[in-house]
UniProtKB/TrEMBL annotation:
Pfam families assigned: COX24_C
Membrane-traversing stretches: none
Organism name: Knoellia flava
Region described as Disordered: 1-41, 54-78
Residue ranges, compositional bias (Low complexity): 20-35
Residues covered by the Ribosomal protein mS38 C-terminal domain: 46-78
The protein's name in its UniProt record: Ribosomal protein mS38 C-terminal domain-containing protein
InterPro entries on file: Ribosomal_mS38_C
Length: 78
């Protein structure tokens, strides 16, 4: 085996086993800021009316896009 012994999973001599900061997604340090709107909504807390309206509008656009795709499929099938 070439390479340090601690590379196999053991902590280097002289250091406690877990001195690293908590790591979030993509290897970045975990965020310490306020929670996002998505996490607040999952916890059952208040969600602003502006966000509700935006979600409704986006859902409507997505539905219209879906209908448009199926309409083109029906037209091209004949």
């Amino acid at each position: 085996m070439s390479g340090p012994v601690w590379a196999l999973g053991a902590a280097p001599v002289g250091l406690p086993p877990d001195t690293r900061a908590p790591v979030g997604r993509a290897g970045r340090p975990a965020a310490a800021g306020p929670p996002s709107f998505a996490s607040l909504n999952q916890q059952g807390l208040h969600m602003g009316s502006v966000i509700k309206k935006r979600r409704k509008r986006m859902a409507k656009k997505k539905h219209r896009k879906l209908l448009r795709k199926t309409r083109h499929q029906r037209r091209n099938k004949k």
